[in-house]
Amino acid sequence: MPFSSPLTEQRFVLQHVARITDLAATPRFAAAEPDMIDAILEGAAALSEGEWAPTNRTGDRIAPKWEDGVVTMPPGFKEAYNAYVEGGWGTIAGPVEFGGQGLPNVLGFAVAESLGAANMGFGLCPILTSGAVEALASHGCDDLRRIYLEKLVTGEWTGTMNLTEPQAGSDVGALRTSAVPVKDGSWRIKGTKIFITFGEHDLADNIIHLVLARTPDGQPGTRGISLFLVPKVRPDGSRNDVYCASIEHKLGIHSSPTCVMVYGDNDDCHDWLIGPEFGGMRAMFTMMNNARLNIGLQGVQIAERATQQALAYARQRIQSARANGTSAEPVAIIEHHDVRRMLMRMKAQTQAVRALVYAAAVEVDRARLALDGARQRLDLLTPLAKSHGTDVGCEVASLGIQVHGGMGFIEETGAAQHYRDARIAPIYEGTNGIQAADLVGRKLAGDDGAGMARLIADVRAEAQHPNLVALTDKVADLTRSLLAWEVDDRLAASAPYLSMVSVMTCGWLMERQGRIAADLLAKRQGDPGFLKGKIACANWYRAHIVAEALGLAEGVQAGAAYLFDLNVDEM
Length: 571
Ligand SMILES: Cc1cc2nc3c(=O)[nH]c(=O)nc-3n(C[C@H](O)[C@H](O)[C@H](O)COP(=O)(O)OP(=O)(O)OC[C@H]3O[C@@H](n4cnc5c(N)ncnc54)[C@H](O)[C@@H]3O)c2cc1C
Hints:
alpha+beta, eight-stranded mixed sheet, 20 helices, 12 strands, 11% strand, globular, binds flavin-adenine dinucleotide
């Protein structure tokens, strides 16, 4: 099933949700003019549809091969990656002083959306590289930045992120990888990391690993952790003492090699500190926050891809006459009410999480401009975008299978691949459970609810639909309760509370888009088909998804009641 980038939708969201014109009015982002934005979106669509999308099925069926520490990507990947590097697609939002174009981060997200929708597993390679660029640019010393940034920005070299060890998953502070200083100012690292995405491959000449480790004076837990840069090939051209011991066999994203990485097997793994000793978590959070928004975007990518595929199938699969007697002949299943319900849900949910993720991504730009409240809004929206975006990705991919009926369960249609691919996103980059804990802990209690109060005030200033007004009032009430509760009740309520806040935010952005679309339609400006679709999805979202979110309030209110009634043996 061919994929096509949702260009009109991306332009609309960039304009009316991200308000990219406001960014372009500042000297820093003056280059982000409408013509430039159009050229970038169209170029990214051509690369995604022409070069990346054809690798999607190949990568799922063939997967990367490991042999003696060497990982060989499936056919077509090298060419598709070279086209990405040669076209300068990695440079869009990169720092100008290191060869980047310095354009808005949110525009880079639109490009990443198209690439990842074409091939979600492959799209992880640029995601991790851009996270490494951000961490290095923010925390690296001048020497490291000079040696590594330019080639990472272009994508000639790729980046990885190394937190996980067998005993240290969500509990990063349990890591055991160690690093000791040597006289020349570098360090020697030793340890094994698991689940390292694109830890080894043949797409680039060098792979730059960002690795968390404990130094000799590092106390236990996260406070004693430092971040190190470990190149596969050292600056003098020699091969470093790091290798890939194996790759995993997975449910989905087969085209992304998930590697066991061994550092310092021969006690000769050269590495360099990024940021201050013991400042590892702060530096790694720069990379993780970037990656969390990008994983939320993966939810959008897979939802878009699954929706396009389901719509195409529903238009051509013929079954039964209409139940209301308007046709005696069998019709395409898209005519039947339940298939319509699923397709409207898929379309509306996809648009909603795109708005949420782009709204978060533009706060990175607003924070770079030091605009009032931008950092606080970004911090608040990050767990929502990651968690709700990826939950919706799974839901929409599952509905995509349902729309196909039995053929959805058969691999050759491709609907099953989207479902398998989608399932990792709620797990990595901090599970969605950890995101919910982050929301009610660091993000809500951290500023005593000030950031949430600002978000609620912004939604209230625009909300008109009674369901959205009611949901916003409920979120405001529950927020007051949560702030007063003990930690057990707060954590027990965190997942449904996160869903309610996410749907409130999505409802707000959907309502705004629906209103603007109606206005443009009345003035006969823009594509009437697209605008009608926008209005329908905004209406559907508030009538159904916002109404459902209201129903979560009782569960939030229950807190930890009944949760620990059974002891571990009784469970
Ligand atoms: C395909 C793939 C790619 C990956 N890529 C990378 C990568 O590039 N770099 C990297 O460093 N890691 C990577 N990971 C690791 C990934 O980030 C972890 O799997 C994830 O953080 C969860 O850790 P875990 O698997 O140890 O699960 P666990 O931490 O054991 O969690 C198991 C369950 O318990 C829950 N849980 C755990 N602790 C708590 C708590 N305190 N409160 C509430 N619930 C809790 C979790 O939410 C989850 O539901 C990847 C994993 C996979 C599968």
